[in-house]
Specification:
α1 packs antiparallel against α4, α5 runs antiparallel to α8 and α12 runs antiparallel to α17. The chain has a two-stranded antiparallel ribbon with strand order 1-2. It has a single domain, classed as MFS general substrate transporter like domains (Growth Hormone, Chain: A, Up-down Bundle), CATH 1.20.1250.20. By secondary structure, it is mainly α.
Length: about 500
């Protein structure tokens, strides 16, 4: 699988792997942390989650502009890594819960998130541009799609374990204080403190509270204050794990920095022929940029659907899913390990499939692969739509204080959905990055990679509508919206297919 690829690919992937471990440690728990820490509902926590997630990618545009302007990609990437470590440190500092001053402490958390987002903007797109230049010479050009698939798989290895580490740290901290984990309790505790529990919800709250406490509860208000504080301290310490991952990533990057190519250099490797890209006139430059902008516009709707994994799909795991398989206990966050696990598992299969088709000269073009990925993503949400028929809306679930196990759906519904979504991702994300690196004019490599991530950011900003749908309409209808979004994206790509294939030749 690695035969013929440039030597710099693996060190770059390893540096990204450490960063992704830290990032997904945070993202696995972020939406649930915001609710548990500040007592916000799904819509408001969704706004913060979506704004943060989108800003990561929007700021990649600024990161690309900075790198293109300074012509110092490697330094820009290193500064990004250092800023992300600082941001994780800011949100890892334990603060009291329930918060004594909501605007102050929520603002502190948002500042930490902004620092992470800005660091990620400096890092992510520019590292992708660096990897793209590894495949600009004649020796490696045909392996570009496979190279980015391998790069994508490596960075997901860290993401497999990240969603498991965060819940483990939180549960360990709870056990040290004589408590056990219960996903529904933080929201019920906030409702108890606010005096908004219904009678049926109060009965369920007290039952759950007694089930997680090793000592008899005499004062439920005191229990709520203590449980919320310990619960969220565990989350803060989990964010600290991300700092360790960032330190490893920084070390790998610094050690291999001198061996990486520099996208600012227009001259190709010695002995390679001048590529068509180097000889482009202004008309061709415009055509390539128009093609890239068209693809960016289409993939917005894929990311709007795909990145529900950290928001509404995680809420669904908490509110509607049986949290065990036999005797193996699950947490809502652990389902997010499914996506990176399937990335690593499926990537060799996908790379092998494309290699098989390439040898027979029937490999689909990159734009066609992206269109296929859109269709596969639609199928994933068809599965969720069918699996959610008959479950009560969220408003009824909250009135009951949560669903009993016999009313919940099997965890295999989410597992199978993540499998299909990951297959779609492998047809879109690494190949989209590859498409950008192939089509973008050399002097616009950084900004074009930034705009690809900016399109992802636009899709992520739309995530808030997923949160609003989840809390406001029937659950099956929420998933149906994502089916429509993915199908619209697919048909749009097919409509532009011949033009995109011609531009990318």
């Amino acid at each position: 699988m690695f035969k013929g690829h440039p030597k710099g690919l693996i060190p770059a992937a390893l540096a990204n792997m450490g960063e992704r471990f830290g990032f997904y440690t945070m993202m696995a728990i972020l939406a649930l942390f915001i609710q548990a820490k500040f007592g916000l509902n799904e819509t408001y926590s969704g706004i913060i989650y979506a704004t943060f997630y989108s800003s990561i990618y929007f700021l990649a545009i600024a990161g690309g502009l900075i790198a293109d302007k300074t012509k110092n990609y490697k330094k820009t990437i290193l500064i990004g890594l250092l800023l992300m470590a600082l941001g994780y440190f800011l949100i890892a500092i334990p603060t009291p819960t329930p918060v004594p001053n909501l605007p102050l402490y929520l603002g502190m958390t948002c500042v930490g998130l902004f620092v992470i987002a800005f660091g990620n903007g400096l890092f992510k797109g520019n590292l992708q541009a660096l990897v793209g230049q590894m495949y600009d010479n004649d020796e490696h050009r045909k392996l570009r799609d496979s190279g980015f698939s391998i790069f994508y798989a490596f960075i997901n290895i860290g993401a497999i374990f990240a969603p498991m580490i965060a819940p483990a740290v939180r549960s360990w901290w709870l056990s040290r204080s004589g408590f056990s984990y219960e996903a529904a309790l933080p929201e019920l505790c906030h409702q108890h403190l606010a005096g908004t529990l219904t009678d049926s919800a109060t009965e369920r709250f007290q039952s759950l509270a007694n089930s997680v406490s090793s000592n008899p509860i005499a004062d439920y208000t005191a229990f709520c204050n203590e449980y919320l504080n310990v619960f969220n301290e565990g989350f803060h310490f989990a964010f600290g794990v991300a700092i360790i991952a960032m330190a490893i990533s920084i070390g790998i990057y610094i050690k291999n920095k001198k061996n990486f190519p520099d996208p600012a250099l227009s001259q190709r490797a010695k002995g390679s022929k001048t590529s068509k890209v180097d000889e482009m006139d202004i008309k061709e430059v415009k055509q390539r940029i128009y093609a890239l902008l068209a693809v960016f516009g289409v993939v917005i709707f894929f990311w709007f659907s795909f990145h529900q994994n950290g928001l509404t799909l995680t809420f669904f795991a908490r509110d509607y899913t049986v949290l065990h398989i036999g005797s193996f206990e699950l947490s809502p966050e652990m389902f997010q390990s499914m996506n990176p696990f399937f990335v690593v598992f499926l990537t060799p299969i996908i790379v092998g499939l494309f290699g098989y088709l390439r040898k027979r000269d029937i490999e689909p073009s990159t734009p066609k692969k992206i269109a296929i990925g859109m269709f596969i993503a639609a199928l994933a949400y068809v599965v969720m739509t069918l699996g959610s028929l008959g479950v009560p809306p969220l408003s009824e679930v909250k009135e009951m204080g949560g669903l009993h196990e016999d009313m919940r759906v099997t965890p295999f519904l989410l597992i199978f959905t993540y499998l299909i979504l990951t297959l779609a991702e492998l047809f879109i994300s690494p190949l989209g990055i590859s498409f950008v690196s192939k089509v973008a004019p050399p002097k616009y490599q950084g900004i074009m990679q930034g705009l690809w991530l900016g399109a992802t950011g636009a899709g992520n900003q739309l995530l808030v509508f997923g949160a609003m749908l989840y809390s406001g309409v029937a659950i099956w209808l929420t998933w149906s919206v994502f089916v429509v979004a993915c199908l619209v994206s697919m048909f749009t790509m097919l409509f532009m297919l011949k033009w995109l294939e011609r531009v990318s030749e």
